[in-house]
Design goal:
The protein is an alpha/beta fold and 297 residues long. 47% of the residues lie in helices and 15% in strands. It has twelve helices and ten strands. The structure holds coenzyme A and magnesium ion. Coenzyme A (COA) binds next to strand 1 and helix 1.
């Protein structure tokens, strides 16, 4: 499990220079809103996008949605201006594209530490969400996860990775499968969330749903999404279903009874149940609770 309870089933991206899309996103009840300053924004629009993002942060009520800003790659001149100009809007966190070295993340961490101190904000509150999306990033995924206590989630970027490697994207996705696995493995090892790749075909909702399910089966906690119509599907698939919750509760109860009777392993509906099965059931219940789906919370 991750070290916190912020639910991030869907992270909706939109170009930071589109106030209209930021406003649209707010009405959707999406877990996280990511106002982009990087690749979704034309070079000529970078300054305008920073101004619009700050305006949105300072004037709009985001409701229960998390307010995130995706800056340009760390170490670039754009990145420094992104941070300096948007920090006044006090976002909940920054999404860090093309993360490759701990030092890059440490530098952002230090900038935020000084800003929080100078502005009288609680220390460490602003989160960092690095995107692993280059070959170097995949090799460094452990040090990226551990670079700062602010790191709250690892995001996996398949498209940029394929470009960086010179791989060809296919529907099955085997060309990025090692990396997609490595990111979720590191996230689970170091107790941060794992957020799965973008699905680009805006009109193929069945394909999108299938990719959400595959991500969930791999233990991803949520998915980056790029269109309002992807939000509901991702937020449904990345939360446990009613049937899963019921099944999990039965397993936990049967396990409690078995333990009381001195049994470690037992059979339920013709299937063997022992500790690993119970642990998976406990994960389902914890997720359901975080999603507000349990009335006994
Ligand atoms: N966030 C919020 N609202 C969005 C949205 C998004 N990501 N994508 C579309 N919408 C809105 C549109 O504004 C439109 O509403 P409107 O007609 O009232 O203005 C409505 O949803 C339907 O949009 P649609 O016409 O189907 O799409 P589009 O042609 O306007 O936009 C994209 C297509 C791909 C440009 C758009 O979905 C987008 O900007 N996605 C995010 C791109 C991005 O951030 N990339 C970088 C990260 S990977
Ligand atoms: Mg990218």
């Amino acid at each position: 499990m991750s070290k916190h309870t912020t639910l991030r089933r869907a992270l909706l991206f939109m170009p930071g220079d589109s106030l209209r899309k930021i406003e649209k996103a707010i009405g959707l009840g999406v877990d996280s809103i990511v106002m982009d300053l990087e690749d979704g924004v034309a070079f000529s629009q970078k300054a305008a996008a920073r101004r619009i993002v700050v305006q949105a942060l300072q004037t709009l009520d985001f409701g229960r949605s998390e307010r995130l800003v995706r800056m340009n790659p760390m170490g670039s001149e754009l990145a420094e201006d992104d941070l300096r100009s948007t920090i006044v809007g006090r976002p909940d966190g920054y999404v860090l594209p093309k993360a490759e070295f701990a030092e890059q993340i440490e530098a952002v961490d230090e900038f935020l530490r000084l800003e929080e101190q100078a502005r009288g904000w609680p220390a460490g509150q602003i989160k960092l969400l690095p995107i692993v999306e280059t070959a170097l990033g995949v090799m460094a995924v452990r040090e990226i996860a551990l670079a700062s206590p602010r790191v709250d989630a690892l995001l996996f970027g398949a498209e940029d990775l394929a470009g960086d490697m010179g791989a060809q994207r296919t529907p099955a996705g085997w060309e990025v499968f090692y990396a997609r696995s490595a990111v979720v493995m590191a996230a689970k090892a170091y107790r941060v969330q794992a957020i799965d790749q973008v699905f680009f075909d805006l009109n193929n909702l069945a394909g999108f749903e299938a990719e959400c399910r595959a991500g969930r089966q791999m233990a991803y906690d949520g998915k980056m999404v790029i269109h309002p119509r992807q939000v509901e599907i991702a937020q449904r698939i990345f939360a446990p279903s009613e049937e899963e919750i019921q099944a999990a509760r039965r397993i936990i109860q049967a396990h409690d009874e078995a333990q009381a009777a001195g049994l470690g392993a037992f059979a339920l509906d013709g299937r063997m149940v022992d500790r690993p099965v119970v642990r998976m059931a406990e994960q389902v219940v914890r997720k359901a609770r975080a999603a507000g789906m349990m009335d006994d919370a």
